[in-house]
Amino acid sequence: FRLALIQLHVSAVKSDNLQRACGLVREASAKGAKLVALPECFNSPYGTQYFKEYAEKIPGESTQKLSEVAKECSIYLIGGRSIPEEDGGKLYNTCAVFGPDGALLAKHRKVHLFDINVPGKIQFKESETLSPGNSFSMFDTPYCKVGLGICYDMRFAEMAQIYGQKGCQLLIYPGAFNMTTGPAHWELLQRGRAVDNQLYVATVSPARDEKASYVAWGHSTVVNPWGEVIAKAGAEETVVYTEIDLKKLAEIRQQIPILSQKRCDLYGVEMKK
Q1: pLDDT in tens, 2-54
Q2: Is 151 a domain residue?
Q3: Which residues does the annotation mark as catalytic?
Q4: By its UniProt entry, which Pfam families does this protein fall under (predicted)?
Q5: Three-state SS at 173
Q6: Helix, strand and coil in the chain, % to nearest 5
Q7: What is the dihedral of CA 116, 117, 122, 128, to 10 degrees?
Q8: 3, 81, 159, 183 — which has fewest CB within 10 A?
């Protein structure tokens, strides 16, 4: 099946972001995409100073638009981190997924908050404004089961391993790595998650805006279960298309059967809730 990743240029005007995102979703659908993903923070600038201002409840303005365009195009739509979500006085970094009938299929709240300090390069602390999610998020399609993470979640190999154990064949991480971590680890982490678990990994980033307070790396990417990069964007606004070949996935798992050769008598990773 065809996957489309929308590397959107994000402005400070929420309505413009929503309108452009929906237009690109329609374009992707017209080109045969069955599963379409938007980037992390697609409807607002990325930064702790913006989260409260742009926050919405779910359902709300942004998710309603996503629901409508998913139904209109009869596709599965992953809403990136569609919004900073407000719920019970707390804010979450949340990705909403909609089915071809417009129904909400999954709502992933970012599990691992991006609190880092690389001296002389970047310091960022999402926990100043955001609360962490506490659950894994998966959804079924007629093609395969899909597991969700958001950006920093990709650094935690155990999370991807759980998704693999639960039958996911595709992991999608809307993300916004920066100009320090992007060139160092963006592709490396995706290839690691893919080859370790013998599944497809897709990441979808905002387009790079050199004038923004937080500059995203871009380079939305798809990696196959062999660890090969099969599609990759540059830094500009674009839509990346690729074919997800589940026959190839099955062949790789048969050729190198690591999933059946794990020594579960010696080690294990488990989902606690």
Answers
A1: 999 999 999 989 999 999 999 999 999 999 999 999 998 888 888 778 888 88
A2: yes
A3: 40, 110, 151
A4: CN_hydrolase
A5: strand
A6: 30, 30, 40
A7: 50
A8: 183
